Amino acid sequence: MKILVIEDNESVCTMIEMFFLKEGIEGEFVHDGLKGYAAFKSGSWDLLIVDWMLPGMDGVTLCRKIREENSDVPIIMLTAKDSESDQVLGLEMGADDYVTKPFSPLALMARIKAVARRYQKQQPGNNSTLRTKHLEISKETREVFLDGVPVANLTPKEFELLYFFVQHPRQVFTREQLLDQVWGYQFYGDERTVDVHIKRLRKKIGTAEQPFFHTVWGVGYKFDESTDADES
What we know:
single chain; alpha/beta
């Protein structure tokens, strides 16, 4: 793996670098948001680790700019901010996961490995295309078409969540089940992570008349292309 770490705290970088060496991970460390964006543009990365508070350009702005490049590279945000609004903002800007400071290096490595396993499963060679009445989803090319029109700017996690739902039409899943099935590990953060990703998918796919993702109050969510399926 080749990981770009954009973090201005050198002691945190030293700690992460030690674990990278033990795991055989190639890491590049940048301590400024603007330089981090330049490093992202000039290299090829399997994963990014981005701190929220950075000189030059903050991590949330950096994450948004990376997603504007139509990049699907997974992003894990490091943040000392633990309020709901801050976490939601980071996810809405395109982060796939977040780790709250102070954190255990072992916990961070577990998140990195989980993201790597999920992403590798989506690479070319795993040819599987799902087709529904309105959607066509290629696992090989990671392309999504809605009524024949390409859907752009899906993050890796949004793509994986959509693919999972379409594999299980009309089946209701709890937030815990979705975290386990899509995030791929026992998630120690807030279940609102699921809510944020559903909200983003609703904005990118579907309309008020055709929402696709339906809330089943007191239970969770389901994917259903029928227009009368909402139980909210």
